[in-house]
User: Fold these one by one.
Assistant:
Number 1:
Amino acid sequence: MAKVKDPVCGMTIESTTAAAEGRYGGATVYFCAAACQKTYERSHRPDPR
Ligand SMILES: [Zn+2]
């Protein structure tokens, strides 16, 4: 288990219980809520699968 920081709201969350996650620039980013991921994706493009 690892603590990660939601870059949108600054909340510290567990990577295993994150509500949403995505890969951006080769790094996995975790979010506390899907809404935070949506906000993040306004300024960051997700990596192609
Ligand atoms: Zn958040």
Number 2:
Amino acid sequence: MFSCGRQSATHCKLAPNTANSNKTATSLLTPPVYDEILMTTLRHDWTIQEIEAIYTAPLSDLVFRAAEAHRANHRADEVQGCMLLSIKTGGCPEDCAYCPQSARYDTEVDRQDLMNVDETLAAAGRAREQGATRFCMGAAWRDVPKDGRFERVLEMVRGVRALGMEACCTLGMLTQDQADALADAGLSAYNHNLDTSPEFYGSIITTRTYQDRLETLARVRRSGVTVCSGGIIGMGEDRAARYGLLRQLATLNPHPESVPINMLVPVEGTPLGGRAAEDPLELVRMIATARILMPKSMVRLSAGRLALSEEAQALCFLAGANSVFLGEKLLTTPNPESDADLRLFEKLGVKLVGAEPRATT
Ligand code: SF4
């Protein structure tokens, strides 16, 4: 029912010289500020003022512009399905305030050592049967270990690729040699989220720095593996922190090929366990703004989806989300059941598809 809008959309550009904090949100999103180029040309020099103007535009304008950018670069009737498996659970020495896998918090997460390769590949096979084309393996480590466990992860990556799926890992910080070894094993993408803005970061994590994260992303980029990096809303940050996160991501050159946008799932026992649910329309604004700033990236509607109504999820897809996690668990937090997802996609006329990571330069 939908088609790619490359041919027909009114291509337009948010002109670089409009970085003027005096402009109103509406003026930044209304012709003639847009011209023929915005939706397919990538910029890496976004300012906070521009991002704020986009984020705070009237919601209908914002979603409309994001949908245009989406259709100019992707098929609007396709969503990539990813499956995330926790291959090593709990006992992490870091103190990320949202995370039930931190050893510092008393949560119901049971610790589990690194899984074996056969179990992991069996899970990848089941994910493929459920329509997933990307299999993500997450391990609650601060750093990627330098012992036989890393060899085991490399074997998992080779096995997932042999199943014809994209392989993604999120294993914490890594060295350049480790990034290169993952690349040699065929890793498609490495996830390492920035989580939030540099300014708010210290309220959430104290055991590693923002710069550590940026350096990990740089090593992944140098290895040739594509970058998956995004953040979380609903942790008590203000909108300025969201603009700051988006600017960090959108000024990376190239942009991350995949940008997961998460909404906090408060877990009892973590410092953020008592936080009230975030307004889903903030998630829609975040996704739409990410879509406009990084039009060629996959924007992934990630954790927190279970708290969204079908209508809110539909709005997220309209705003440019084109990737989701399938399966009942995201590492340790709940996610919609596969059947519910398939029913929703059918109602929306959306197909689950594979998507090789694209270069976004
Ligand atoms: S988010 Fe990752 S690094 Fe932070 S505590 Fe959880 S598992 Fe550890």
